[in-house]
Fold this sequence. Notes:
Layout: E1 8-13, E2 16-26, E3 29-36, H1 39-44, E4 46-50, H2 51-56, E5 60-61, E6 79-83, E7 89-94, H3 95-104, E8 107-111, E9 114-117, H4 120-129, H5 136-139, E10 155-159, H6 163-166, E11 180-184, H7 185-193, H8 205-220
Parallel strand pairs: 6-9
Antiparallel strand pairs: 1-2, 1-5, 2-3, 3-4, 6-7, 8-9, 10-11
Amino acid sequence: xxxxxxxxxxxxxxxxxxxxxxxxxxxxxxxxxxxxxxxxxxxxxxxxxxxxxxxxxxxxxxxxxxxxxxxxxxxxxxxxxxxxxxxxxxxxxxxxxxxxxxxxxxxxxxxxxxxxxxxxxxxxxxxxxxxxxxxxxxxxxxxxxxxxxxxxxxxxxxxxxxxxxxxxxxxxxxxxxxxxxxxxxxxxxxxxxxxxxxxxxxxxxxxxxxxxxxxxxxxxxxxxxxxxxxxxxxxxxxxxxxx
Length: 243
């Protein structure tokens, strides 16, 4: 890709999009003007770098628009509908999980954005974990809006049990958590500004994660949680093989 004068380019950096318009290309140098980005970039106003560095820095052409805030936030990857071996839809998974199923041969592509399990053991394992309860939650698209206010731009991944505290949940129970929700930047900042609860790990790991769940609900009052969501998603703990 060679940068062109007048073209608008965008890249994502730590959840915030940077958008520039190339103003000059002279020899090995590219000059550009910032149209959108973090406060530091906007204060700079303009910049320059070598063309080879511009190409490798993640800049991609984007359409010109009046407001680029929709580009902010976490990257929203495609999700896939997953059918069981009989062809019935049972859940929706991330692109990363879909690639894993395909790579392992557990599923085949059954259409655009659709997979079908080819190995009944995979779905049997899932049915055992969730007691066959593939409810509406499993088919929801969960990365398209803020679960608190419904905003569709500047989305971030919020960990209900913060990463630094998640280690207090022992395995295999840690893998039982449906811990990531999409929250817009405004709501996320509001949550981060609230005092952390006095939540201490104890013998009952479920009480611990429920306390974090209740804190999240109390601070932000989420109105758009996926139907059927709870912080503990697995229903049959014995199926984890941990007794």
